[in-house]
């Protein structure tokens, strides 16, 4: 069973920073595109950022310049550095592992809540 274990969420104030982490097995980490999605109340789950095994990154426009996704192969962990948070960043953030060529091979973490409030 594939497990994606997330951590790092919490309640922060506008302008603060935090780092989300997601750890999985080596067999997944070395083959899959890793990503972060988020879902705010009443909204659909949306892509935040992805990083390929070669380190190529992709971001949704609303987080460009504020969020950074990275992966640490030694720890089988993908990170999302979140800077200059805004109230609209409030959501449950989900880690995702997507096989690069087989679409049905897609796995999710349990989600971690990020709440931005003054």
**3D shape:** globular
Helical content class: under 10%
- Overall mean confidence score, pLDDT: 96
The total strand number stands at 11
Classification by helices and strands: mainly beta
Order of helices and strands: EEEHEEEEEEEE
What is the tally of helical segments? Answer: 1
How does this structure look, described?
There is one protein chain. By secondary structure, the chain is mainly beta. The chain is built from one helix and eleven strands. It has one helix at 26-29, and strands spanning 5-7, 10-12, 18-23, 33-39, 46-51, 57-59, 67-72, 77-82, 91-98, 106-108, 112-116. The strands form two sheets. Strands 2, 4, 5, 6, 9, 10 and 11 form a seven-stranded mixed sheet that branches. A four-stranded antiparallel sheet has the order 1-3-8-7, with no helix packed on it. A hairpin with a 7-residue loop joins strand 9 (91-98) and strand 10. The termini are far apart. The model has no long low-confidence stretch (mean pLDDT 96).
Describe, in short, the structure shown.
By secondary structure, this protein is mainly beta. The protein has one helix at 26-29, and strands at 5-7, 10-12, 18-23, 33-39, 46-51, 57-59, 67-72, 77-82, 91-98, 106-108, 112-116.
């Amino acid at each position: 069973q594939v497990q994606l274990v997330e951590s790092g969420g919490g309640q922060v104030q506008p302008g603060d920073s935090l780092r989300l982490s997601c750890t999985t097995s080596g067999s997944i980490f070395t083959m899959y595109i890793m990503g972060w999605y988020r879902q705010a109340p009443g909204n659909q789950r949306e892509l935040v950022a992805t990083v390929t095994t070669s380190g190529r990154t992709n971001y949704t426009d609303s987080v460009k310049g504020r969020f950074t996704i990275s992966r640490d192969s030694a720890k089988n962990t993908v990170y999302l550095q979140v800077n200059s948070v805004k109230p609209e960043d409030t959501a449950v953030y989900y880690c995702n592992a997507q096989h690069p060529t087989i679409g049905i091979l897609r796995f999710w973490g349990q989600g971690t809540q990020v709440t931005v409030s003054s």
